[in-house]
Amino acid sequence: MEKNYTLQNSNPVIEIKDLHKSFGTNEVLKGVTFNLNKGENLVVLGKSGSGKSITIKCIVGLIKIDSGIITVFNQEINSLEIDELNKIRTRIGFLFQNAALYDSMSVRENLSFTLRRHDTTLSGDAINEHVLEVLESVGLKEAIDKMPSELSGGMRKRIGLARTLILKPEIILYDEPTTGLDTITSREISELILELRQKNKTSSIIITHDMPCARLTSDRIVILKEGVIHVEGTYDELEKSEDEWVRSFFI
């Protein structure tokens, strides 16, 4: 799958400037600044506890920031009323680590519920058509009537991604998309991330500890250290870095 390296002059869809966030006396983010360009896959690396997941939760307003500016689609998140924020959220897909499926609902019901919550005017036939379309895009059309307990870890990730895609987001935030998966399934999920970007023209932030995933999916990588962006570049550039700490991620 071909990657996209022609993004340097693109308009950013997300801009983060001097982002600070503390929890009690624990200062996690100490001035994080970076952009996500339109059509880009940006991978965020960092040691455990460095604030990677906190950062993307701040982007969608799940966590309130202490200071700084987060702009999404040219709108400053912190200045929005809840109705305006929810409109922005419908344009952003969020794939959680555990896929966050409702265990009491079948795959069909999980996906239908998401659609109905955002568009009460859709008919049953229209909903079913959307569900089948998005399941086909993640290669799991045959799982439509299965329960989450019947799915493997990789299948649950795919269904979680299908639920994210069903609202046709322009931005997707992936939180450890390959965690807990075997090597082959991890590669399949990474390839799917690329396929979906090519097909749907999405822009994505991918948080991962999985370096094969980072290598395969990233156009650019930023690395968090001690609450700030320590370095950024392509996978190849950072792998050859003279900074020993940066190179330690690539060993």
TrEMBL record:
InterPro entries named in the record: AAA+_ATPase, ABC_transporter-like_ATP-bd, ABC_transporter-like_CS, P-loop_NTPase
Domain ABC transporter positions: 14-251
Keyword Disulfide bond: no
Entry superkingdom: Bacteria
Pfam family for this entry, one: ABC_tran
Matching Gene3D superfamilies: P-loop containing nucleotide triphosphate hydrolases
GO molecular function: ATP binding
Membrane-traversing stretches: none
Keywords: ATP-binding, Nucleotide-binding, Transport
Name of the molecule in the record: Phospholipid/cholesterol/gamma-HCH transport system ATP-binding protein
